[in-house]
From TrEMBL:
Protein name: N-acetyltransferase domain-containing protein
Residue intervals of the N-acetyltransferase domain: 7-162
Organism: Pseudooceanicola atlanticus
Gene3D superfamilies linked to this entry: 3.40.630.30
Pfam families noted in UniProt: Acetyltransf_1
A Gene Ontology molecular function term of the record: acyltransferase activity, transferring groups other than amino-acyl groups
Length: 162
């Protein structure tokens, strides 16, 4: 069990790229591999996460425990675009702290309503979002970023008014 009092948040730095990409890849595989279409799976190798981490490094916020990365979020516009927590930290309260940081970050940017995409069928994630006060707003198709060309994917849209 993680002691949430010892968790720290900070902006990502270029030296964090490998650690973020590794956690992102592991988390994505855990939450999406069983649900993603083959075309998207073919684009989600470890290198693709490194490339996207490098592209967006200035927008990541990291959660650490004793100096070790255990989670992160990435906000783009009014979207919480990425949200991942190391599987070993699940059930510890760390995810709620990480979500609070993402919401505070979005509030500070002036957003009144924010949203995120949840993979259809990822019931564990959806339950967490709903517990955190998010609401299901319907299904939408979004263009998923890849190294080659965007791939359309239908997702559950979750929203929260701050």
């Amino acid at each position: 069990m993680q002691d949430t009092d010892t968790l720290t948040m900070r902006p990502a730095q270029p030296d964090d790229i490998a650690a973020i990409a590794g956690l992102w890849h592991a988390g994505w595989m855990d939450g999406h591999a069983a649900r993603a279409p083959a075309a998207l799976m073919a684009q989600r190798d470890p290198e693709s996460f490194r490339i996207r981490t490098e592209r967006w490094i200035a927008d990541f916020r990291l959660m650490e425990s004793d100096g070790q990365l255990i989670g992160f979020h990435l906000c783009k516009g009014d979207e919480v675009n990425q949200f991942y927590l190391d599987a070993a930290a699940r059930g510890s309260g760390a995810a709620m702290r990480l979500m609070q940081d993402a919401e505070d970050h979005q509030r500070a940017r002036g957003h009144g309503t924010i949203w995120l995409a949840c993979a259809i069928g990822n019931d564990r994630a959806r339950r967490f979002y709903e517990k955190a006060g998010w609401r299901y707003a319907g299904e939408e198709t979004h263009e998923m970023e890849t190294a080659t060309a965007p791939i359309p994917l239908t997702i559950w849209r979750m929203e929260k008014t701050l």
